[in-house]
Task: structure prediction
Amino acid sequence: MKILVTGGAGYIGSHVVLELLAQGHEVIIIDNFSNSSEIALKHIEKLSEKSINYIYGDYGDENLLSNIFNCNKIDAVMHFAGFKSVSESQTKVLNYYLNNVASTLTLLHKMKLHNVRRFIFSSSATVYGIPKRVPISETAEVGGTTNPYGTSKYIIEQILNDLGQANDFDIVILRYFNPVGAHPSGLIGESPKGAPNNLVPYLLDVAAGIRDQLYIYGNDYPTRDGTGVRDFIHIMDLAAGHVRSLDFLQTNTGVHCFNLGTGKGYSVLELITTFEKLTNIKIAHSYTERRPGDIAECWADPTNANRLLKWTAEKTLQDMLNDAWRWKNNFPNGYF
Ligand code: NAD
Ligand code: UD1
Result:
């Protein structure tokens, strides 16, 4: 199939593109490198031994999209492009809604005009807000989001549900839990611009001597050791989930929503200890106040993805941290 991948140079998109190429799909990437680098694409080419068809540009650019859809028979769109920082979304509110919501509407509109029905969307467990219970299943209440980033994902999900009801599109919404790790080659991985916000990129900076210590946001949560518990999922497992979603859309219509998680939660302290055992590197850390908006614990019920997508996360926390560390050693400052 010929797949248009928005944000294909980014962390998740680059790993998915590699999987798509490995499965024999043809890929066209559109990316403006606002949070990524062309080097990721060079590394995909090296790993896949295929040349990449990519367009430098904004996925919300109507003319660019018309050109792409006019010149190519696109079978499906995988939509990764967007802004993803919770904290930044609270100060750059309009930028977030424009880039995440308004541009997605433009993209969907162009798809409709060109009769492209299949759409796979990167959503997030953040749409569950503060979950009433764990593990979280797809039927749990959504919408209790506390920041514009999360709300942008929630709004798009609502739009996609409406489109599905109107029988205009066939859609898979994927709610990611906490993607971490890197391709086992160590050639592609997460490359945040500026100081990292998320746990594993920050921990890697400390391990590499780039930052002095890791600040643990709170040790008084009602969890087994007081620190937050999350469902960390290896980026390669996440990537495989996208390819399975594409297969699923070959035989299923309408809108479907799946959690992509392992079904297991690890605490911040457990993750640190696992990393220390694997690498023999001590991670200096101290406790600080809870981060506003954080929840105590969050892990997925992945039963639906297991059953319907025939997908299961296979890699362990050790795999995630080993692969992340290999990537960090190869590219201590990412691509920048
Ligand atoms: P990323 O920032 O690494 O990748 C996004 C890519 O989109 C980047 O290459 C960026 O340059 C590109 N981009 C942004 N705006 C664009 C625009 N207007 N036009 C063209 N390209 C544009 O992020 P990621 O971690 O790969 O996340 C991919 C998607 O998954 C995002 O929608 C994100 O919200 C969602 N998601 C990510 C996580 C996570 O932990 N990484 C968790 C849940 C959901
Ligand atoms: C965050 C986002 C979420 C997004 C997800 C993936 C917030 C509030 N949530 O999830 O919307 O979908 O990333 O991009 O930003 N931690 C520390 N010290 C750190 C960093 C994190 O103790 O320096 C703790 C956090 O308090 C949390 C855990 O580590 O308990 C995981 O944090 P993080 O990696 O930022 O992911 P989430 O907050 O789960």
Remarks:
- Residues 93-113 form the longest helix (21 residues).
